[in-house]
Amino acid sequence: MDPILIHVPDTLVTPRLLLERHMPDTGKDLYVPAAASQVELARFLPWAVDGIFLDQMESHVRRQHAQFTLRNELNYRILKRTDGSTIGVTGFVKCQWDIRQFEIGYWLATTETGNGYMTEACQALVETARTALQSTKIVIRCDTRNAQSANIAMRLGFEFEGTLRRFKRDAHGDWTDIATYGLLT
Q1: Rounded to two decimals, what is the model's pTM?
Q2: Torsion over CA: 80, 64, 142, 177 (sign)
Q3: How far is it, in rounded angstroms, from Cα 86 to Cα 32?
Q4: CA separation (Å) from 159 to 103, 141, 142?
Q5: What kind and span of H or E run contains 102?
Q6: What are the chain's domains?
């Protein structure tokens, strides 16, 4: 089946969070937490190194909206249900529809870390992958220096599969090793 015909929920609801598909004109909602977290994000994400700008965020959400429609990437902004504030992004950054394997990626506002929000959001993605996407495997990859990200994978029951040494250059151009975690579904 052509992936574009597969129903993927635009919104996922958890006890404390709302995950919404990126929509045009919501870049400003991502800009505030991203800009406030720029130093931390720049450690692992190349797009944050040179600063974070409003027009950059709006371009990003528009591209992500299109990628979602095409089923190339399925990303969501994360909102707190209590006040509707945007606190980060998560989603399937790589979709291999032919083998039903999906890779989860994420970032969270520095002020919101340590509260279990990203674990909760990723659990919703795991459930969506198992049911709506009929996944065979879900993957999380992270820089080996990013212990918080690795902990999320382990809390969700992912198994450490190995380290890809000198897999890519980090945000500052240095070689980095990438830890790979997998969950067979």
Answers
A1: 0.94
A2: negative
A3: 8
A4: 14, 11, 13
A5: strand 101-108
A6: 3-184 (3.40.630.30)
- What pLDDT, on the 0 to 100 scale, is given for residue 110? 96
Does 47 score more than 90 pLDDT? no
Rounded-to-integer distance, Cα 116 and Cα 151, Å: 11
**What does the pLDDT look like over 105-154, one tens digit per residue?**
999 999 999 999 999 999 999 999 999 999 999 999 999 999 999 999 99
Q: What is the secondary structure of 13-35 as a DSSP string?
A: E-SSEEEEE--TT-HHHHHHHHH
CA within 13 Å, CB half, 102: 27
Residue type (1 letter), 174: D
68-110 pLDDT, tens digit each = 999 999 999 999 999 999 999 999 999 999 999 999 999 999 9
Give the whole-angstrom CA distance, residue 48 versus residue 50. Answer: 6
Note whether 171 and 49 are within 8 A (CB): yes
Query: What dihedral angle (degrees, nearest 10) is formed by the CA atoms of 125, 52, 64, 171?
Result: -70
Q: Alpha carbon of 165 to those of 24, 131, 177, 180: distances in Å?
A: 37, 33, 4, 11
